[in-house]
Queue: 3 jobs
Job 1
Amino acid sequence: MMRGPRGPEGDRGRRGRGFGREDTPAEVKALQEALESDSTPVEEIKSKLDAYRKARQAQEKELEQAQDKLRQILSVRQEATLVMMGMLD
């Protein structure tokens, strides 16, 4: 088996959405830290959860806009391929 620049899987291991990624948004980190402590007040958790949801909605809107731009330059065949791959809706 050939080894990629970052291990046997190449870059594939960095594509997940899990916690602990270097590019984890601040809202995710803040919510995670709040949940790690049993003494975090409920109102603080609610506040951090609201911030997380707003950040996620903004990311989804940005993704939709990028996908729309991409669709403008794709052929129907290319678009269908990307839909089948789960990269476009």
Job 2
Amino acid sequence: MSTSIGSKLQDSARWAFIRTPRSFQGRVLHALGKEGPWESGSPPLPAPPPPGMRVGPPDFVGIGVAKSGTTWWFSLLMGHPEIHVEYEKEVDYFNLQFTRRLAAGACTLADA
């Protein structure tokens, strides 16, 4: 199977472009109109809320350790007609951040 000269040239250009700084890549993609809406430098606009809902920061955030009644508390919140609760109960945000820092060497298991 033979590869055309145009294909080889395109592969070489792609290889060279990938190795340029990200800031340069962003400027080139912006000039060509080939960037995603999230790469324009401004965050994307959120979808409008359904009728009757308002958007804003949470009024409170529940944090609890295992076996402390958070499932019971979550079920009470889910049953309330005026409270919208995301279905995902456990985000594990702090565990995720710790494992990322641990993998990067920014902390040790002694920091747990």
Job 3
Amino acid sequence: MRTIHERVMADARREGNPCIRCHSTGSTCGRHYNGQRQHAYGKGRGIKGHWIGIADLCKRCDQDFQEGSVEKNNYIGKDQYSEEFQHWCIMSNIRRDERGFFDGPS
């Protein structure tokens, strides 16, 4: 039986799933939150954070949220960067919930 983390990651990659941020299709994958609060969500050295912090982002949008890329973006600072990434994680989970993802069999 797959874990919820594995199910969320597979759901993010399912065919036709658009990027939650720009709505493009074709390269969407589950991207783990890496903002200021990442360690509060279980992230550690070589350990991904909790599945609740996974956003369905395309490759282009994921590049905007790569660790160390804050300075090349239009963010005011780490707070705005972190808050926006959290927003897309929440929106991805709202979309999953609206599709009944959490109601189905594991």
